[in-house]
Amino acid sequence: MILVTGGAGFIGANFVLDWLAQSDEAIVNLDALTYAGNLQNLASLAADPRHIFVHGDIADSTLVAGLLAQYQPRAIINFAAESHVDRSIHGPEDFIQTNIVGTFRLLEAVRAHWNGLNDETKQGFRFLHVSTDEVYGSLAKDEPAFSETRRYEPNSPYSASKAASDHLVRAYHHTYGLPTLTTNCSNNYGPYHFPEKLIPLMIVNALAGKPLPVYGDGQQIRDWLYVKDHCSAIRRVLAAGRVGEVYNIGGCNEKPNIEIVHTVCALLDELHPLPTYHSPLTTYRSLIAYVTDRPGHDRRYAIDASKIEHELGWKPAETFETGIRKTVQWYLDNQSWVSNVQSGAYRTWVEKNYQGRS
User: Fold this and answer.
1) Partners of 187 in the beta sheet?
2) What is the pLDDT of residue 349?
3) Predicted confidence (pLDDT) per residue in 24-83, tens digit
4) CB 2 within 8 A of CB 33
5) Active-site pick, 134, 223, 229, 254
6) Model pTM?
7) What is the CB-side half-sphere exposure of residue 321 using CA atoms within 13 A?
8) Which letter does DSSP use for residue 143 in this model?
9) Phi/psi zone of residue 67: left (φ > 0), alpha (ψ -120 to 50 degrees), beta?
């Protein structure tokens, strides 16, 4: 059995679904069900005894200790995090509490549990911490991609909080011997992505005939990783990664944001054309609206994923072209999910974030 934290969120839910599609090993899934945690993501597992869902917070030391004692997992995979840069700019305290305090308390509970295991079980135990490429800061256009030895230079409250959590995980390995692994991934996209991030926001707004807000000049460059490729990489690191090591996970798809938006629009034009009788618009690109940039917006991220490929034999299965087509089609096929996650709280957030952006 393994324990997954944050397993009802975007990446966590995809991991849980993929894991149980390929393995009979059970999962205890601990999630606080904040705005981005959604049990609808896991609806297909409602009657599956291999999936044990627990509503709770990683900062609840008593709860975590009880779960570890009851289920005796052989590994913990920590997806639990606040992860949206814009939200961290508007309200950084939640990020400090979850990403730093929560990770600290989780590590403390896991350390106490691990210390009580017999030697053989201790040897096989793993704590895998899922992090982000944003901890490395921003790259100039001609700089080499982030490697695992890149100095940390986080620029947003979100990335600073994730950098702190990474450092805690590293310290618990070097100080206490806890068998940790850390992964730093590039921008994920795919099914069940909450529509505050670029790709799902563009899809959802386009289908509603709303403006497609593009920050600044749209030339911010990101490396795009299909979420199911990310999940396969995590499985590989858990199975064969060297204890104490960091592995960067990337999609080998560096693209500027405006190109991403153009690609989404072109796919929607093909798969779900605008009804000409309903609107004078003939293409979704007509909805693009450039808005005031995010404060301190990092210009470029890029991942050097050669370490995980050379050491563990992993590389992404999807190209951006195949992955983005699957993603757009998923949103078209799952309109009820999209409708259900766009609650009043979501609408309030969107208004707050884009209010006053000319």
Assistant:
1) 224
2) 47
3) 999 999 999 987 789 999 999 999 999 999 999 999 999 999 999 999 999 999 999 987
4) no
5) 134
6) 0.94
7) 0
8) S
9) alpha
Residues paired with 147 in a beta bridge: none
CA atoms within 13 A on the CB side of 93: 0
133 catalytic, yes or no? Answer: yes
Residues 6+ apart with CB under 8 A from 280: none
Catalytic residue from among 133, 223, 229, 304? 133
Residue for token pair 């690191």: 237
| Residue 276: both structure tokens together | 């000409």
Q: Is 166 a catalytic residue?
A: no
- Residue 281 tokens read as 């618009």
Give CA–CA dist 37/48, Å, rounded: 19
Residues for the chain: how many in total? 358
Which among 82, 86, 136, 158 is annotated as catalytic?
158
Q: Give catalytic status of residue 318 as yes or no.
A: no
Burial class (CB in 10 A: 0-12, 13-18, 19+), 200: buried
Rg (CA), the chain: 20
CA distance 345 to 348: 5
Contact 197, 9 (CB under 8 A): no
- Rounded distance between C-alpha atoms, residue 33 and residue 108, angstroms: 22
Fill in the amino acid letter for 192.
Y
Residue 127 contacts by C-beta under 8 Å, 6 or more apart in sequence? 75, 76, 78, 107, 110, 114, 169, 172, 178, 179, 180, 181
Residue 148, token pair as written in the block: 């695992």
pLDDT of 343 > 80? The answer is no
Cα–Cα separations (whole angstroms), residue 36 to 6, 30, 193, 279:
10, 14, 9, 32
Report the DSSP beta bridge partners of residue 55.
31
Tell me the two tokens of residue 227.
């979420």
